[in-house]
Amino acid sequence: MNSTPSRPSRSPFDMVSGALGQYIPRGAGAKAARSGEVQGDNGSRNSAHSGSAPGRQEQILGAVNLDRELRITRSNLDAPVFAGVEVVTGSPFVDLLPPWDVPTVTRRLRQVLETGEPHVARVQRLRRGDGSELVVSMSILPAAAPQEGLTVTLIAMARRLHLYAAETAIGTSLDIGETAQSLAESLLAWGDVAAIDLDLAVWTGEVVTEQPQRRIRLRRAALVPDRAWPDGYVTPGDDLPTDASRLLSQAIRRDNAAQAIVLSDRAAIERVLGSTRLVRALVPGDRAAGVAYIPLVLDGAPPVVLGVAEVWRRSGRPFDDSELLDLQELVARTSHHVDLARQHQREHTQVLALQRRLLPRSGGDTIETASIYQPATPDSAGVGGDWVNSFPLPDGRTALVVGDVVGHGLGAAATMGQLSMEARALLSAGLAPDEVLEHLDETVTLLDDAESGLAAGYSALGSTCCIAVYDPVSHRVTLSSAGHLPPILVPPDGLGGPVAARPHPGLGAEFALREPFDVYAFAAPPGSLLALYTDGLVEDPALSIDEGIGRLADAVSKVHPWDDLDQAARRVVSALAPARQRDDMTLLLARMIGYRKEDTATWRLPARADAAARARALVSELLVRWDARDDTRDSVLLVVSELVANAIRFAAGPITVRLIRTGDGLLCEVGDTGNGRPRLGRGGLLGDGGRGLHVVHGLTTRWGVRWTDTGKVVWASVGR
Question: Per the confidence metrics, is the pTM higher than 0.85?
């Protein structure tokens, strides 16, 4: 057996940094680098350019080491391609940059220094001593241990290499703004200022089609370099003036074909634009003397113009034919990336619209709610299936629902919307939380079916959901959960903690794992706070899930009874959000208010023939104390009488009558031990069956049935 210990694994970036060490002098700075005398770890290594190292004339790679103050400690920029770039040991690295790039590059350098995450393949300009500039691909890496600071690698960009590197960099993002920005940065290799103007339909993710004579409306999507521009100049996020959009669309669509155009001098630019206002909006400064407009064209029959790329130059640098061919090739290669970003922008907009629509609007009179949804990333791939909802039920109770659908994007959004709407419909129909979860479990199973389920290989198996229903009269919550983390309950006079709910498999579990969903009922007196959430809020690689739930309980316990609930929800999310958010975070806070004791009354009556008369007498006496109007009192008495008579006729056991004074009327409830669903008879008022329900139907604004463990409750709402 080989007893030689294996070498510890190193990250790719450590290996890159270490490999670059052969090009970085171990001596005291740039002078040694320029002389080519490089010392190895044992002091015996010769020049980095001898032996198998790349020849001096072929080298396009240079490296600069920086300390934590972003000052140059050593460098190797002695290849001829870097001639004129003056590197001075001890000077700030940003002295090598054009002034307008200093803020952006400084921010990138400090970001890598603080996070340790590299920033790679940025197209950057370096200043030469003669005033000219060199275009390089710059990567910023943490220095290899034991060194501290940063290693900045610089690759001089040959034209073909630049085309390849630019296309690779542009295709790394699905965000429309980042894609446009990457394209603009790549175009700087050919000019001094680059801008990307996109059709507004592309920017917003709408469907783009070719329409003859259609005038595209352009919006500036990207502009480099990043610096202060003259007043009036169009900057990212601004729409181009209508005249400018029309002028550019006509210019690039000559003879119904998209073509590049070049204006070689300042006089030609001002003559074509025709007005001082357009010159101020479209020309980046007094030194701009030439521009190339290259259309972004999506291949097709006919081709579709997505926008325009602009490359501006100072005087004395006209575009030659080979440069125009390179520009057109780069823009043509990357147009499909722009369209992919447009499609994902559209998907992102659709998913977020559905996500926002599911967020609670208001909690009603008996409960106060606030919700937060925070996606992990801004692109559509990061928009997951987290959803929360709260809504008043027709019988005066309030439903609180939170779920986490497996996956991301439109597939997860479609499932999320279907489960949310199905849960709302079933709860409004009077089903208990556990019964609703049984239906959702079956729905997820059907969606996973190869023939009737969702396409593209999407599966919602393992999605989770938690449903809580708050009764404002009894001040109790009934809860069922399918694989979801337990809610946090904070009583008015104590510390919060998770509800003791037994874990249950997620929705769509295998048949062998399926069990009846448990129902948990617990008291939630007025002032109690209930928090429902998804796992992204409490999961942290540095903590166990129990510790994460404990942190949430502590944060929710700090919410004061008089705090604004929306602000409190934001504080809770801010306190728990990890430095690097890996998953969507969703939180629903519900503060229980309930009905006052004097606004409700409950009576329990035996199922005898005189029960209806007894109920009328009790209700009539209460309505007098409540000072109800005569017409309202008559309607309520008749409704209660019919519901009690119906319960005695078709059910058994004791009858429960409950009357609730709500903000906009009276709610009458009659419970019994029967399990049959009352229905309106077809015979109408003169028929043998269903006459009582026809009376109820005519006197109330709404009525329905909800099921209980011991039977059912028929409720009816009467307006005041």
Answer: no
